[in-house]
Specification:
Helices cover about 40% and strands about 15% of the residues. It contains 14 helices and 13 strands. The strands form four sheets. A five-stranded parallel sheet has the order 5-4-3-8-9, sandwiched between helices.
């Protein structure tokens, strides 16, 4: 991980807040755009749930006025948000159609800041919100584990709670160490080659991605490191063909949660006959993130996702780990809520 860059960015955030005396500050978003915001921001709209998790670990729930009208993850398993924030289900919702934010529903929230996912400064939603409504937009774009940690600093500035942000990062590092204290000493020869499978099946994680960092910290090697196409290898989300995947021959296939496929489909399904000679399939080493909301690698729960993956890659090294206890302890430390009982600690 690039610790110097994270420290430097954190210092810039602190200087910006100090110079402005907790009023209007200028902060760089994940796309490098300079955005003027109030610190603390009083009426924040979150259009993405992983950043929302980070804010709830750091900031004041009362300052969140609206959320994206998207509860796909929450339908899988009830989560802690209503416990942290009694008004969670009463928040206004902002709809999207065809990837476009509905400006009318957003305007009803009267926000002073919108947080959303974007991959380019020219994103149509950034332009529409800033130019039409005159509301600043902070763009989130996670490309590394460093970005996940830096997001905590960002929420510290937005909420004017830098001390709590520092504490949240300490908690994350402490729980990451549960994994890395074991995987850090695993020799290269014992690290499986991993193909990460997004929901588009032949879409995977390039070497310049947060998932690549996750695989490495979990004691694996991203099989895309061995791809011959350098452009595809370095893209965040390259798409390969089956011939390439067979040639790469990963030891492990790790699926992001897929509502339509399970590991057994990959190993025995009629639609995947062409995969039978891949080492991961022959050896029954196809795994899936079983709950994408609980094991969200692009949120403060990243240490849990890391441990989840590491336990599948190296089951013998983690056979004594009580995952349920770690999940509960983590939620108490991070949000003051027991999991999965949803009781306040």
């Amino acid at each position: 991980m690039h610790k110097r860059s994270v420290v430097a960015a954190f210092a810039c955030l602190v200087l910006a807040v100090s110079a402005a005396c907790c009023a209007e500050v200028t902060i760089k978003d994940d796309l490098g755009r300079e955005v003027k915001i109030n610190s603390p921001s009083e009426r924040v709209v979150f259009m993405m749930e992983n950043a929302l998790k980070t804010y709830y670990a750091v900031g004041d729930p009362e300052k969140i006025v609206a959320l994206k009208d998207d509860k796909w993850m929450r339908k899988l398993l009830e989560d802690i948000f209503p416990v942290i924030d009694p008004d969670f289900e009463k928040k206004l919702t902002v709809s999207m159609t065809g990837g476009r934010v509905d400006l009318e529903s957003l305007a009803k929230a009267n926000p002073d800041l919108v947080v959303l996912w974007a991959t380019t400064p020219d994103d149509v939603n950034i332009k529409a919100i800033e130019e039409t409504l005159g509301v600043p937009v902070f763009a989130i774009f996670v490309r590394s584990i460093d970005d996940v940690l830096h997001q905590v600093d960002t929420m510290g500035v937005i909420s004017d709670r830098m001390e709590r942000a520092a504490e949240v990062k300490r908690i994350m590092h402490d729980y990451m160490n549960i994994t890395t204290n074991v995987t850090g000493s695993i020799p290269e020869s014992e690290r499986p080659k991993v193909y990460w499978m997004w929901t588009d099946v032949l879409g995977t994680a390039g070497v310049n991605s947060g998932i690549n960092d996750l695989i490495e910290l979990a004691g694996g090697v991203n099989v895309m490191k061995f791809a011959e196409n350098e452009t595809a290898m370095t893209m965040e989300h390259p798409v390969v063909n089956l011939e390439t995947l067979i040639k790469l021959n990963p030891d492990v296939i790790y699926m992001w949660y897929n509502e339509n496929l399970d590991p057994k489909d990959i190993m025995t399904g009629e639609d995947f006959k062409g995969w039978r000679d891949i080492k991961a399939v022959k050896n029954g080493r196809v795994y899936e993130i079983r709950n994408p909301y609980l094991f969200d690698a692009f949120s403060p729960r990243m240490p849990l996702a890391l441990l989840h993956v590491a336990m599948d890659l190296h089951p013998d090294r983690f056979k004594d780990v009580d995952m349920d206890k770690i999940i509960d302890d983590f939620h108490v430390d991070m949000w003051g809520v027991h999991y999965p009982s949803m009781e306040k600690a």
